[in-house]
Specification:
This protein is mainly beta. It has a single domain, classed as Beta-grasp domain (Ubiquitin-like (UB roll), Roll). 8% of the residues lie in helices and 37% in strands. It has one helix at residues 24-30, and strands spanning 2-7, 13-18, 48-53, 56-58, 69-71, 75-77, 81-85. Strand 1 and strand 2 form a beta hairpin. The chain is globular. The N and C termini lie far apart (29 Å). The structure holds FE2/S2 (inorganic) cluster. FE2/S2 (inorganic) cluster (FES) binds at residues 37-40, 42-47, 63, 71, 73.
């Protein structure tokens, strides 16, 4: 089981505990943490997050990502992670 810490818009950190079987987007939705998304397939870039700490397994995508950025719809945690919304 992995822990996902996410910095919310209001500056608070929320923690979720997940098995790493689903995308980060699906896990956030499951826990009622809402972020932007659209295509859910790695095409639109709406769901970009910053990976602050930890490792993810990232599937192929069409979006050009900068260092430290991940797509919530294409990434699954493989360790405890900390993520934040992109500034
Ligand atoms: S929702 Fe479109 S890239 Fe993730």
């Amino acid at each position: 089981m992995f822990r996902i810490d996410i910095d919310n818009i209001d500056g608070k950190t929320e923690s979720l505990f997940v098995y790493g079987e689903n995308s980060i987007l699906a896990e956030l939705e499951e826990h009622n943490v809402l972020i932007n998304y659209s295509c859910r397939q790695g095409h639109c870039g709406s769901c970009i997050l910053k990976l602050v700490k930890g490792d993810v397994l990232h599937q192929d995508c069409l979006v050009q990502l900068s260092r430290g950025e991940i797509l919530a719809c294409r990434a699954k945690p493989i360790s405890d992670i900390k993520i934040s919304l992109r500034d």
